Amino acid sequence: MGTNRLQFHGGGRGRCLTGDCGGIQQCTSHGQSPSTLAEYSLNQENNLDSFDVSLVEGFNVPMEFSPTSIGCTRGIKCTADMNSQCPNELRVPGGCHNPCTVFNTDQYCCNSGNCGPTNYSRYFKDRCSDAYSYPQDEQTSNFTCGGGTNYKVVFCP
């Protein structure tokens, strides 16, 4: 399985193989793809938390996102060996790119707001069935728990 090698000097400048944040260790924005994302909104509509694991930006490390509070037990685990099996056209050192970044077409980027699964999104979905695999994949990939739930996010479980 691929690893996300870090190389930073004492001043916090350096680079990550995947998910780099402009050469700084303390990210102030979203890292460069490919990157496995944990997304969440806490205490939203109807006092619910919403959470997901997204592969829309590609995949770099396996991830688990799980509630730890009593009363909510549905978590997400994406532990497939995605990098070694990545389609050649999406493969990059340390990760598996998303097709939007590689091909930059509406079919893969969903710029029109109306898109469906593709062969590439199916590659991700087949290996991590609970994760978002394309921008409009919320029906099988968005999970909720009651507000106030505690969670753990584990990289490389």
TrEMBL record:
Keywords: Disulfide bond, Secreted. The keyword Transmembrane does not apply. It holds the Pfam family Thaumatin. PROSITE patterns: THAUMATIN_1, THAUMATIN_2. One of its GO terms (cellular component) is extracellular region. SMART domains: THN (SM00205). It comes from the Eukaryota. Disulfide bonds join 21-27, 78-128, 86-96, 100-109, 110-115. It is found in: Secreted. Signal peptide: none annotated. Belongs to the thaumatin family. This is Thaumatin-like protein. It comes from Rhamnella rubrinervis.
